Amino acid sequence: MRFEHWAFDRRLLTILLIVVVQMIGTAMVHPILPLYAQGEFSLSPEVITLLLTAFFAAQFVAGPFIGRLSDRRGRLPVLLLSQVGTVIAFLMIGFAQSAGLLFAARILDGVTGGNIVVALAYVTDIMPEHRRTQALGYVMAAFGLGFIFGPAMGGVLASELGPRAPFIVAAAAALVTVLITWLTLEETLSPEDQALNRHDKRARIDPAALVSNVPLMAVMCVTFVGRFGFGLLIGTFALFAEAVLFAGDDFAAVSLGVGLLLMVVGIGQFFTQIVLLPAALKRASDPGIVMLGSVARALALLILAVAMGPGLAALSMVLFAIGSGLLMPALQSLVTKTVSKSLRGAILGLHQSVMNLAVIFSTAVSGVLFAIDPTLPNWLGAILYSLSIVPGVLLWFWARNNGFGQGAKVAVPAR
Fold this sequence. Notes:
Layout: H1 10-29, H2 33-41, H3 45-73, H4 75-94, H5 99-111, H6 115-126, H7 132-161, H8 165-184, H9 191-199, H10 207-212, H11 214-245, H12 251-283, H13 286-306, H14 310-336, H15 344-372, H16 376-387, H17 389-402
Helix pairs in contact: 1-6, 1-7, 1-8, 3-4, 3-5, 3-15, 4-5, 4-6, 4-8, 6-15, 7-12, 7-14, 11-12, 11-14, 11-15, 11-16, 11-17, 12-14, 13-14, 13-16, 13-17
């Protein structure tokens, strides 16, 4: 039975549950991985940040393929395949005996890590366009819930059971998402839709048409610049916490402190999706919300750059959560409105690849910047978030003059 009101759609609730469980597992391991690589394998900051680069490089290559594959072969099988890859990757990290295996695991997780992209495509399939931003906001709220519980759980597990424990538990959490998907979700694309997407020549992205699509390029610019700043943050946050925020504390204390700070991000993001985003949608368009999110994240990185203890860092994390909670659903909704229905998965995959490309470059340089000065990545991130406001303004003017974001589609021309 399908409920008419979207908020009670069983499929949406199932996707949200999957994202929560997935993000609990992911949030358990990401704060611990740099400290784990440093403590167990004696890797330098420059090499540790390359672990993140390897993951996002693999996602960059695989993202459009995964999204397009879900258009052509269905959301469900691709979602299951990507989730299984995450399970195997977490187990590889947990039982790794060499740095090489860590890199292999991160690459595997990146190649098969299209589960979130496919989940977003699934949501856009079942949601009407005028409710899509709020629905994607609920997905971000599920992200927030994962980050409320995941980092703290990872910190406790690492401090009580050792640095390998979070990865084993995360693999178990990812396995739960496989079972939930397999047992409860239904396919959103009919066999006829899949066949049409496979054989319709119009359902192809022309690179020249992408460049000429003004609102799409503006969305991608905001995404790239903002994600570059995000990569600088995540690439060095645990190391920054150890060197500055919790200077002199042992591994267990630093792990717990990092976990609690990231839990603040989860709480702030959840609050943003449930309270702030619905209020913002009543008063502003998606492009206006993009600008608000960019301003909040710029302030967050500026505060973190001057923070010398966990107090100011917690304030920074709250602002960062609010900015991300406003920005990401609006960008994801906007990008799906720039193309035809048959290209939703592909364009979300391309959007994910743009994010990954930014993180590839930023995480690769973040370790070098950190080695120069632990605060330098945060300063650069604040500058970049400020710059991302410029294409956001362009989006706002385009929406005002062309109706973009109000139901009008700007389709990517086909060959």
